[in-house]
Amino acid sequence: AVGDAYRAWLRYAPLLPDQAKEYAPWCGKIVVASSGTAPLLAPAVEELAAGLGSMLGREPRRGQAADGEGCLVVGTLDSAELQGVADDAEAKALGDEGYVLRTVDEPGRRFIAIAGRTDRGALYGAFHFLRLLQTGRPIADLRIAEKPSGKIRMIDHWDNMDGSIERGYAGESVFFREGRFLEDPEDRKRLRDYARLMAAVGLNAVAINNVNVHEIETKLITPELLPSVAKAADVFREYGIRLYLSINFASPIEIGGLSTADPLDPEVKRWWAERAADAYRHVPDFGGFLVKADSEFRPGPFTYGRDHADGANMLAEALEPYGGIAIWRCFVYDCLQDWRDRTTDRARAAYDHFRPLDGKFRDNVILQIKNGPMDFQVREPVSPLIGGMRHTNQLLELQITQEYTGQQRHLCYLVPQWKEILDFDTHALGEGSTAAKAATGELFGRPLGGFAAVANIGSDLNWTGHLLAQANYYGYGRLTWSPELTSEQITDEWARISFGHDPVVIGTIKRMLLESWSIYESYTSPLGIGWMVNPGHHYGPNVDGYEYSKWGTYHFADSKGIGVDRTVATGTGFAGQYHDVPAARYELPESCPDELLLFFHHVPYRHRLKSGKTVIQHIYDSHFEGTEKAEELVKAWRSLEGKIDEERYESVLDRLQLQAAHAAEWRDVINTYFYRKTGIPDEHDRKIY
Ligand code: GCU
Hints:
Radius of gyration: 26 Å
Bound molecules: alpha-D-glucopyranuronic acid
Structural class: alpha/beta
Largest sheet: 8 strands, parallel, barrel
Strand order of the largest sheet: 7-10-11-12-13-14-15-16
Shape: globular
Helix content: 25-40%
Distance between the termini: 48 Å
Number of strands: 18
Number of helices: 21
């Protein structure tokens, strides 16, 4: 049964009579207006018809012309019907993806225009219009013009063809099972619904397979599997989404019969040029290749004494004739480190590898940079590589799937974290040089840029396992379109769309979401140090789990102090990779923000934080308080019993209860570890084991 959980933000719940009365006069008829072929108008109209039908109880008619009665006109600004709706300058400013929503209310001319310069713009406009109704906004006097801030707004799936998902917490892949593509009509329908969910929040690019490309997936770029890739691409194309494939850098050897994958070898170049040609033969609007190379045992140009620019440029050259893009990931570090070696700092790695190559990449290469210098921890500083390169396109990579943030068993709403990242001032060109502007390319006038994030969805009926984790996906999409939206705005939208307008319900859910990241942070690893999880699967507390391993993720806790000295003066020098203002702020414990103190400094347990507490007391307090707050989440949700449907109520309740119990486990493991290490008692004499 397809319920509200499956429909997610396209649930289109029936509106209250008052609201319906306000909207209905504009929504009785839809007129399609375009001057040429405009394939994306069909899904726009279909969505409007279905959405309005469900919300207003009556499907709009399809009409030929606006006739002064009040209707919706959906289309492109060059059509006869939409003449004059936007002037030339306004239209030009919309670019290829923007739109206007405009109420025209003149004698003989009464309609709401949902219009772009392109049909793609109109499609995004249609979703925006539907969102206005879903969130109860007025429509009688619309004057909205919007366009996305990032050109590329991408989702990376870490799906394997056996159906498993690397770091997936919501069932199996929606693309693959047992080595093949899922191609039954029902699977197609689900994929199409997924494309709708993506387009509804403005996403326009998808990589369907894991960046760790294993044996079968290496063949995705061959004529054997490209016909199936093409069928998946057809589904996404209908919603304006371009499909990308993750590739294996060693493909020329593994499937090409060559003896090398050296990016400067003419035969290797020719081989990749042929693969690109094949890909575009099957998928004319193929997006390009996504590459994890020389990273965590993946092959790459280093084997041949070449650098990342050689590797990325070779692929970009192959894709260039077709308008394709090579997305090259910067998650490159020494993953065979000796924990005794204090000179190597994993945090430095991405910048050290890529910064010297700035200016060497072709224009159709984009470097994909994780938000932090380590790996999607609950708290990290922003990577200094973001805004660190002026002559190179960037994509900011986030992780929606909650690998290190509770694996969708814990509630951890990440939009507030992402907002801090996007708003971070890199000072690359002085004040106001935000990470968001660096990523979109606005800061340095780059031709390409945007955002990518690892998906949190799978075959679970509600897509995300934890129902409330849908908000993370939704929020990611909204932020890639408008990074300036506030967490509060996005949360309010999502809560209303998903749960209606009862102020108690909405208020409670919003509070729960907005506090959840800080709650999760407070009962897990303290003050920016990260890790302290079980190795391998990364769930649950294990303070020394990674302390003596090869991965470069250490906390250096002894009986006197804890933290990593990353200062220029006495440490690894990582703090010096930032531009002047943040570099100075992080260099000194006095100016370093509390929440990142242990990321940048090794301090004694009695070091006093800006909050006035000592580090050790902060650890105790935050773990006791965080666990209490996790229990309060359960109580808050229970207060909504009977106010939301049972299915969604029960499924969330289960997870919140599990979270509360598991938070107590975190609290006890962490507090006990530090109590035993330090022998310093809790000032409040609470139970520590
Ligand atoms: C993390 C994650 C891996 C993933 C890697 C990556 O290390 O645990 O599963 O492959 O990031 O981003 O490439």
